[in-house]
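Problem 3 from the worked examples.
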Amino acid sequence: MIGWMQRHKKYLIVTIWISTIAFIGAGFVGWGGYDFNSQRARSVAVVGKNAISKTDFNYAYNGLFNYYSQMRNGQFTEEDAEKLGLAQSVLASMIDEQMLLNYAEELSLKVSDDEVASVLLADPNFSTNGTFDKAKYEQLVRNARSTPKDYEEGLRRTLLLAKLNDALGVERVGDVEKEILGAVYFMQDRLSVKVVERPTNLQLGDDALRAFWEKNKDKYKSKTKFDLSRINIPVKLVEASEEELLAHYKENRGEYRDSEDKLLTFAEAKKSVVRDYSFSLVKTKALELYAKVKKGEAKTEENLSVFEDDTVFESEIFARLRESKAGDVLRPFAKGENFVILKVEKVEPPRVLSFDEAKKFVYVDALEEEKNKALVEKASGELKGFVGSDIGFVGRDFAGNFAGLNAEETTSAIEQIFNKNQKEGFVLFKDKAFLYKITEQKFLNSAKFENFGSTLQNGIRQIKNAELKRDILNVLRKRYEVKVYDRGQQDGN
């Protein structure tokens, strides 16, 4: 999975940013103009005249981090993020976007208020029964930890980038280009194939394990440990007047909806209103106590220790803890029927595990490496003089499964066969190797060329536009100065 992420992380950064528009991410990102000297402490970089704030960077980074975490069912750590170069990729993508925004402004491209309004009014995320719902819009914006003003400014920048893409986009596609791409897309190979199973009867002694650990010990580290103290502030339902509850309902009515996203009446939502109103009162007291704890006028009580991958707190709280140091106090947050104030007493960073501590993990990884080496040797040996089963002609659009492979493995095998410039070879999977030999080829099918002509045209246009964008960015990097202030998040310009 990490390998797949590494190959596609640049695409994913764009995807995450698009997702924020639909409120899947952490909130719309805004940049705006900054004074370099006064904003240096709050910015990670300045591109031309626009700055990238630390807040915006953290929103983008956390959004992408959470996306990867979801893809791996929560099994994604800061160490994984470092291996991927996640922070560097996010910042590089944000810098490229600022380059293009600077250029769009230089070309005097503008987005009017009416254009922004038209997109908002047409967005189904903000409508109820086909009509724009202002309360729903504002609530969704709040859920994304943003404001209408910030969201609309972000939308304006998105529309400005779209205008720039339209202004610079390639439209004309030649017939020869379509034929070349069509040949690549619709070429078919006649394959002879065989599946070779990975050896399973390997054993490793302590000497081999220790040698493996010595070579890879930086991979085996303890989790970051946080020694904390906390105050739990219980929330009890209050005996509030009808007027107080009604006022709270009116102020937050967009939050009270049924399963079909329709607004609830005060009577229908009253039970939830009582609970939320009670929480709002206790939150005020919690903030007052939080201020006292920060000043040393009040003390925390219960002590606890947690590791960065514990489930005792939400991922958002651990994100805040990762940015904290000893002595810091976290703002109160709701957990169950309490508000919680956390004080960081000590942070123990990851350390390299001793051989004995890491041995059970080392054994799994070392054995996996040895099995893979054995599989490569076995597959390479069988490829000499290879004669497999003839499965006929196969194209990129093959929809079945190869014998011995599931659907995902078959798709991967086809991709690698057509992307390699080799007549024969093998594709490795976790427990087997898929050997293949191309015995015959046939090229473009005229019927397919006619049926997929528009698809080929769009594909060529996308390729040419991507090349054009890359060339433009290379020029813009010489035109706009980039100052990166936080070198811990991005090395170099």
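Problem 4, a separate protein:
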Amino acid sequence: MENYEKSLGHWVKKFYLLSAREMDSLLSPYGLGRTQWYILHHVNVVGQLPQRELQSMLDIESATLTPLVAALVKKGWLVQQPSPVDRRAKALRLTEAGARHFRAVPNPILLGRRKALAGIDAVEIERARKVLERAVRNLEKGGDP
């Protein structure tokens, strides 16, 4: 069995956990967690977003998304209303206050990436990205290697 600390999986997991911690640390002063930031980000990009579509984009369960959306609604940053297409479904949009707040928050992905990749050459970064992309595609295919 290979040494776990030298495995790609170990470093991917460690990078994910440290990146998540860094993002949470950057967002905390703005009253946001990383998933809440992603919610505001996606709604900001699209304008009005069906909640089910957002759930799919974030790849999370409804039971996880619902309280996060409720907290953003309570803060006055998000409006949840019946979808204009399907009245049974809910659509999300930013309030003026939510849009202002979102614009005031520095992009935690860019800040975290700058810190994490400091001193690493662009060619190395691209090579690592390609390796991880291929590994993900292999797993998405399923079956035996």
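Solution to problem 4. The first strand starts at residue 48 and ends at 50. The chain has a mean pLDDT of 92.
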